[in-house]
Amino acid sequence: MDLKKKFLFGYAAAAVAALLAFEYAFWTNGFSYLEKQSEAGYLTQAEMLRDILLADMPEGTASAGKLEEFAEEYGERYNIRITIIDQEGRVLGESDGPGPAMSSHLDREEVRKALYGESNSIIRRSATFGLDYCYCAVPLNAGSFRGVIRTAIPMEELRDMDEEFLRSTILAVAILLLLVLSLVMYFRKYLSAMKAVEQQRREFVSNVTHELKTPLTSIRGFVETLKNGAVEDPDCAGRFLDIIDIETERLGNLIDDTLLLSEIESKKDVRQEPCDVNEVIGEVTELLMPKVKPHVRLIFTPDAGVRPYTCNRDRMKQLLINLVDNGLKATDFGAVTIQCRSTASHLILEVADTGIGMEAEQTERIFERFYRVDKGRSRAQGGTGLGLSIVKHIVELYRGSIQVESRPEEGTTFRVELPYY
Ligand SMILES: Nc1ncnc2c1ncn2[C@@H]1O[C@H](COP(=O)(O)OP(=O)(O)OP(=O)(O)O)[C@@H](O)[C@H]1O
Ligand SMILES: [Mg+2]
Known about the structure:
By secondary structure, the chain is an alpha+beta fold. The chain has helices at residues 3-56, 64-78, 109-115, 156-227, 234-265, 277-288, 313-330, 360-363, 375-380, 387-397, and strands at residues 81-86, 91-94, 120-125, 132-142, 145-154, 273-275, 296-300, 309-311, 334-342, 346-353, 401-407, 411-419. It has 2 domains: 3-154, 2-Layer Sandwich (Beta-Lactamase), CATH 3.30.450; 271-419, Heat Shock Protein 90. The chain contains 10 helices and 12 strands. The strands form 3 sheets. Strands 2-1-5-4-3 form a 5-stranded antiparallel beta sheet, sandwiched between helices. It has a 5-stranded mixed beta sheet with strand order 7-9-10-12-11, covered by helices on one side. It has a two-stranded antiparallel ribbon with strand order 6-8.
């Protein structure tokens, strides 16, 4: 784990611990308040029971049997344990029946206090039942009888509430943590995507600048040479002017391609119309005819079954020009063949040549901006390395796909599939 991650993790753990501590402290206070309130209520209940018992038994009639009866009746009615204890600590009445060790109750703190005349309550573990109880002991003086009436209420429910609260707090914190974690992950993804876009943009700008500088440097060099006297030599002057012409054309191409690429990328393709693809291919072959080398044939046989394809006609033309132009540039002998047909769902375009071909690892990279297999050859032919990048963007614009198959010295076939909508 790197330092940043450690720090983040530690920070999150500290935040969760603080939240848990805060929640727990808050609840513990609330819980002890609840306990105190309950204790006070239970004590009042014990005092009321004592008053009822006194009213029930006129002076001097407190027999052991009557006390037992009272404990049982009211214990059941209020669903609590009632014990009546005499001065010696003997149990005279017990609502739950005699427990396993009904010995002298004088050792019970609350009983002793009550025998001294103090109504009191205490929460402790029952020696008889092994559970936590809230004991409320009230002095009971009925005629000659002196003793204590004691109630015992199990604390389990309250304690259960405490645990329940802790559980739900932990659950809430865990859910919160998950939420925060997913949010953090989402932002990290978003950030790295943004970074990648920014990196791409920077690379593009630096590439474009470099590509612009190269022909400019060459133009300036030849202009300088001409000014220094070469202009007097008609042979030299002619050659230099030709080079300047080519370089100027390349500058123009580069600017056009860059603008086109950014236009396609912004996906503002509003002009869509049913387009006769055979007709477009016809225009492309006518346009590129001057580039066909002496031992090369440019072949296109229109298929009458081709259905019109709804698209921006200029884009379709750019796509085809780039593929056919590449084929013509790569081929010194043989043919460049264009095929077009419609299937039920797709328009299929194929441009195949018998040219220099490429290695497999090169076919993987040719759609990258400015990538050229042979920089020198491409430059000599006025290439910018943006052509196939433009093709790929156009294909993606119409949610299509493009594949390339190539063998060195045998030729290359590009196959474009565009879905009909
Ligand atoms: N049919 C082909 N046969 C052999 N190599 C090809 C073929 N098509 C493309 N390539 C290789 O892929 C590279 C990239 O092609 P791309 O069309 O993007 O650029 P370019 O033709 O060099 O320049 P531009 O098209 O911008 O004028 C080319 O330089 C060439 O090396
Ligand atoms: Mg090209």
